Amino acid sequence: MTTLSLKGFVKDVIYTPCLNPDKLEVYDLAQFDVNKAHAYGLINLGTSRNNLAFSKWVSPKRTRTYPFARIYNTYHLNTKKVTIIPIIKDEGAGTQNNDRINFITFSWMNLLNIYIILAWYEDAEKKPGTIDRITNQILNVESVREKLTEVSRYQMSALHWNTTHFERDFEPIYLNAVAGYEKISEEQSVLVHNPQAHLDALEKFKVDGHFSLTFLKEVSLPRSYAATRSESLTTHELESLGGNAKGIFSISNYLGGEYYLTADEVYWENNQLVIQESKNSSTGKLPSKDDIKDGLFKLILFANMEEVTVDERGNIQFITRLKLTGDLMGSLFLPCATEDILNFCAKNRLTQTHQKSLILLNQEASKNNKLQIWITHHHA
For the whole model, what pTM was predicted? Predict the structure, then answer.
């Protein structure tokens, strides 16, 4: 697959989500237990009109448990948004799953003004019938509560908080996570991945004995991105680009710094660049709500880019598109007239729930500049 390297600039992020949850659980900060709390909700800080919106990740890996859909569920709220991320997640030596947080996650959160709280797993159970898998992992509760209190009093942007939090707390939290897995291994007589690999990685993130965000960026941006950044692409190649190029965006904003984000697919259509996220339902009519929210959340930043450039070429016209595929007949392009949605639903015998989702998605595509949603069959 070709990889296309683009530059973007985000002045401001303005977005209206419409697939919002009907209600959010509210928790008191003093009793907040990250392990028992819902995947997203509100934390009451005890003073009037003062809440934090929170979401939590099960793993630092962005592709597995829809953390972006959880953040999407809080994005409509006009309050400070916090997301709690385990710095490492090891599911036992008998699995491939041994993930750590990376710079791209840091980038997404900074650009969307979401405050990160790094957390670590300190307890777990051995999966019954195995010697090398763990389950029911428990995050350290006190440190999360402490950081939530700090964020609630913090006056600067999420970018400032995240930068300071990583520079000051990344290493101790990371070491707590490594120690947590060693303790779980010992107490539960279960095999986990060799901690040395995580300790070696930590050394690579350091300069002069101190954790460095620059080194985290360099180590955790895959080699291919580095190669992509140095490759040049002629105007002719850009214009003949068919489907299926992956987009790597180097994005800057007024607050400074360069952040890297990836898009599923970029291609040229009618003299404009389409930045597309695709979600497919292999068995049903439409992808799950979490899948759809995950795709929409990724497009928020792309839809808010003021300009996109490739190499020396000036501003490129672009749109963002969420492609949803399933067992469907025909296609529907949003935004469109409500009547078109009703006809499409009737033709495909979609449920009332699906119909309601499509009407809300139509609102989302109407209210947000540069956003289109394309609903079609598997093979389109």
Answer: 0.93
